[in-house]
Amino acid sequence: MRQASPNSTRRITIATLVFIVCCLLSTVRILSEAPSPTQSRSDAVDLSSDQRFAALKLALPQYGIVGYIGDSVSPADYYFTQYALAPLIVDHSSNHPLVVGNFSVSQPPNMPPDHLRLVKDFGNGVQLFANKDAQ
Amino acid sequence: MATVLAAFLCVASGFALASLAVSRVTSLATGLLLRVSISIGYGLGIFSVVFLLCRIFSVTNLITLDGAVFVLLSGFAILCRVRRSPAVSCPPTGIDGRTWLHRLLASAFCVALGVAAYSAVERARAHPHGDGWDAFGIWNLHARFLFLGGAHWRDGFSPLIPWSHPDYPLLLPGAIAHFFSYLGYDDPRVPVVIALLFTFSTIGILFSALAILRGRTPAMLAALALSATPFFIEQGTSQYADIPLSFFVLATIALLCLYDDRSVNSSPSRRLVAGAGFAVSLAAWTKNEGLLFLCAILGARFLTLMRSTILCRPSRPQNETRRESWIAFGILLLSVAPGLFLIAWFKHFAPPGDLFSDSAKSLHRLVDPLRYWAILKWYVKGFLRFGNWSLIPGTLTLIGFYLIAGNKRGRKPDFSFRCSALALLLTLGGYFAIYLITPYDIYWHLRFSLARLFLQLWPSAIFLFFLTVPLSSSQSEA
Q: What's the predicted TM-score (pTM) here?
């Protein structure tokens, strides 16, 4: 085993110090970007999914396929619906005997397609339709 | 009570299997840390597979099966410990005689780990359903289908919901659903805890494996780098599958390096290779990219051994005969086989993935030079910006460290380094090929996935870096 040369030792010391500084700078970023423990928390997934569809879920069969219509451009609302209603399969189509309606609360829902009949309005933009053609 | 029992059976089964794979280590604490860290992933992998088998064969008594698996694995582990295998010794490498620097490094590591833990917990509290669509749209949704679906669990893999990627493997959903079954309801805290466990176990494997192979200083530097990677901590709490995959990639490479490195163990147990085989199977059971890594690691070891055989060069672990090397490779193949069988069965019943939907168009995309150029640019950009580090990116920090500290007569890359580095490069090449043929807009696809793909390999890249970079002059002679 050789003795460490002073030059090599100095280089390793400098490298380690620079490395530690870079890592600690990054650690400061992790700390500064961490959510504050005191900030109010609203769980978007829970609000838009489980809570929103809790009443509807009780009115639907446990398994099978239901249709889906909605007025949102973003697919997120459809995904939230599927997440809330699993293990039911929510197909983004109205060609099923039961169709879930998911509309924004601020705007009244558009007139549903002719072949759909409103079964129940659960409030908050959540509605259940029956497909007259698929009975 | 049910949660405690489930957690005990999960971790204890994983620990028994980890104890089977990792033989005795002279440093009790380091060996224990490595086994405990690996046991998290092994345990969750076992839980996932057991749950799926119960669903397939309509077994409802989960607790009996879990108990039987635990007793069986513990029995094997005790039996194998009675037949003592040679101990793995830890090298006493460190920063020569500079205790103040060692203390500074230890303090920095403790600070970084503490901040990472604080940030991870606060992030998990702020986003209990995960941070991003994939968490609830893929992984937790599949877990709900597996748990709530009962006999209809296959509905979760319906082609009617292709956006949920029904072809994605089931390690995370299966493990989560297993815990849901003990609790009796789909408690959102389960995926949160699993995500946190994977994140910090990855740091645990990185630290303990390097401490065994190269000593505490490189181990602390590596663990510091990973703990200080903001993107790693963000993704660690997002409930995506990229961190669990990075865990299994690192576990595979670490176990294979422990087997290959004869400086710490002159006659290592082949159980390390079997343990690595199990880990890489679980990587493939976590994400489709894991399947790519499985092919890459097998391919890399095969190619390196073939090169050794054809060119008659000693391109294999020191003191190991060619025959022994091929036997070890055979054990790796055998230990991967059950996992591959399960994945093949799953891929057979799940709908096909979206990436290979149109082979004619894929071929057309393969010959478009603009796509190559675009991906290459994003690779370079991703490499330089990776990790969301403050001021200086982590990749450049490592390069800078090497340039300043690197000994020109440093450690020559050995068999394990060459194989592992080649496997990571082949995996990166595989990602490149997927981007070439992707049916999605290439820029959209790169933007939303490339950083996460790099993250899957980041802990292993740090591991290999500190495995090779010499930190004391004595190491360079090794």
A: 0.93
